[in-house]
Design goal:
single chain, 942 residues, alpha/beta, Rossmann fold, D-Maltodextrin-Binding Protein, domain 2, eight-stranded mixed β-sheet, five-stranded parallel β-sheet, 31 helices, 35 strands, elongated, signal, ligand-gated monoatomic ion channel activity, Glutamate receptor, ion channel, transmembrane
Amino acid sequence: MECLRLHGGSNSVWRTGLVFWILCALAPRRVFCTAGNGSAALEPTVVNVGALFTYASVIGKAVKPGLLAAIDDVNSDPGILKGKTLNLILHDTNCSGFLGTVEALQLLEKDVVAVIGPQSSGIAHVISHVMNELHVPLLSLATDPTLVALQYQYFLRTTQSDYFQMQAIADMMEYFGWREVIAIYVDDDYGRNGISVLGDALATNRAKISYKAAFPPGASASDVSELLVQVNLMESRVYVVHVNPDSGLTVFSVAKKLNMLTTGYVWIATDWLPSYLDIFDAVDPDTMGLLQGVIALRHHIPDTSSKKNFISRWKNSLRESKGLNSYSLYAYDSVWLAARALDAYFNEGGQLSFSNDPKLSDTKGSTLNLSTLRIFDGGRQLLAKLLATNFTGLSGEVMFDVDKSLVHPAYDIISIGGTGTRLIGYWSNYSKLSTEVPEISYEKPPNTSASSQHLYSLIWPGETTAKPKGWVFPNNGKPLQIAVPNRVSYHEYAEKDKSPLGVRGLCIDVFEAAVALLPYPVPHTYVLFGDGIRNPEYNDLVSSVAENKFDAAVGDITIVMNRTKIVDFTQPYMESGLVIVAPVQAAKSKPWAFLSPFTPEMWCVTGIFFLFVGAVVWILEHRTNHEFRGPPRKQIITVFWFSFSTMFFAHRENTVSTLGRLVLILWLFVVLIINSSYTASLTSILTVRQLTSPIDGIDSLIKSTQPIGVQDGSFAWNYLVDELNIAASRLVTLKSMDDYQTALRKGPDEIGGVAAIVDELPYIEVFLGKTDCTFKIVGQEFTKSGWGFAFQRDSPLALDLSTAILQLSENGDLQRIHDKWLTNSACSVQTNQIDSSQLSLTSFWGLFLICFIVCVLALSVFWYRVLCQYKRFTPEPEAETEPHEMQPSGPSRQPTKAASFKNLIEFVDKKEAEIKEILKRKAAQSKRRPAESSEEFSISPA
């Protein structure tokens, strides 16, 4: 916060200089010189620390006693600066940037090792450059956020930056649901930079500063009045006042006269206001009367015992001050910060030595005695000690983060009412808005979710507890001018009327129902847009809203991309999209219609599987079932008969093998599914009236060269030309439903006729409802959009009405309004193409796959068993020989592969019972032969 002179005038430049030189002559300064380097060191028993502030300002009156009390406490504490005395040199900046800079230079001539202050951001910006040159740390009370720049190396803020204060205001805006704010500020470094940070903070919460109302320092009441009159004509009713106490009170005084502190207004003041109020034990009732309902932010100071003791001491002994505010405590802690850092500096062997600055020594011909400004040799080391210092002071924990800002920034949020203030919550950088003391929040995990943000209730301007909506209509409540398209067709949606509203239709009813749900009145009047001879251009209608010719547009306005770039739309209240309407006729019956249920691929695969399954069953049954045996001709007929008779479950052959029955059961299930599907599809094809059109969708329409009908004024023209690259010469503009019917009946071959019409679905539903099903929607809806109400950019009504439209949709009112104006027709469905009823292989490939796998597994098991039998089987000779009969000698003959395969086939062709009998006999013979051989062996010796 900046300086404010409460009373008295300002000293002249010559008086300031004279006082300075007198003080220099009287000040007890003992120095000793070091040879050769032109440097001098102060006697180590006295350490000079400077202070810059405006004595007669709000901050000055609170800071000075705090500084003096801290100096007394430091010098009386034997545990710090052991044997050294801290000497405070005060200089008055006179609330002037120029005089403040001069006073700062004069202060630096006194070889101070640190400077506390200034409170003015403007002076802080200037003298920070001097501090960089002379290596003197600056412990400032200025709150300008830009002072944390890296170029100000020796600047150290010992209060909270306005950066955090603006973050708190942005979070309050989001908490209360406001999206726009008007910033009223003093046009200096303090005001401009603070409001700039506020704009950035609001942007992160999707809010903004709608207007910056700046006035120069020391502006008169008439200047402020002129500014507020202009502000009062604007839409936003949320004001952030970031000024000095003198101009701030002027702002509220003028606002009171302009009746701007009544219901509907929101006033948020930064920390300047509590700082002003806190210095008085009892604020003037007239002043409090100007601030009723105002919200303000005050630096949060933890309620500690040391703070309570200091306040008690302040009231009892420091009579020269009227009151205590947060800057008093920050000033007190600043002195202790400097003392602790100096103590650490001296403990590490630091000395008080100063060197001449060669840049200032070489100023020939100048009457300014700049050579008296010298560099503090230990400035860098002292700055490091300051940044490393950590202690708990009256203002809380004094510790700096990497940005050289105090840790744990927090604010009290207060509401002014009656003769005092009321705490409604806290803001901290750790947990944002909360009703819990920040010190308690620090002990818990951080939680900045929206659900965790809380404030107590408060009384707003006008003595109301209802939260203001934060905005009004421009021009001080003038009714909204709402444009309505003056249509010549489809009057169901919007048309001119003789009622008090002047218009009627589905769109009007939806808007009126949504407005009725708002918690505040919305005065409005309807203005017809268009000449009534032809439908207006909707792009022109939307552009008129964007150009501030109308406040909003209500009607059948499609939400498309190029329109959303210039206006804000509400939530769509009706779905829309482009569709194609074309003439249709009943499909002629075909002699081969019975083939239509299945696609050709489906027929082929089904036939192949009939033969495949028949062959599999024949293989599995051939060895065990006599019905599957006989001459080859008979077997082929059996396979074909069995395969196709399963389609009707009329097969006569029984299956006796386990594998054959397994395959047959699964195949009959597949046949059942195929038969049922075929029957259902054929029934649909033969009984439902099939309608056909030469146009089957947007792709065929694009490929053709036939004319296309488009509604006059519709966005469909631009979409077809710009997005789908359809030649504009193919498009025919149609004005009414009669034109639609005439153009479609003529067809593309006659003049004025069209092959199809491209229009939005809501219009087509009405059109088809008034036809005899001669026309149909063909193809699919190829765009997705909706109808909404258009408002100027950033209008709060767009968001509120969107919420209301959603409420209408949820409670069913939106559907009731739709049913009131529109009648659904059986013709408003797409054409039923015959191909769409055909069943393809895609629907059945799973069944076929399972059937194929089972057949393969069954065959694998069958052949495995056959091969096992074949290994045990040896063909019997035609004539048995005696065991002792000698076989003719000669080379043995191995069977060929062809003979082996032939033997295998012959083996497979044998009956299962015959094979088992042979194997049984061979097993008995193999047992008898070893016995006969043993008998011969026993008889032969005799």
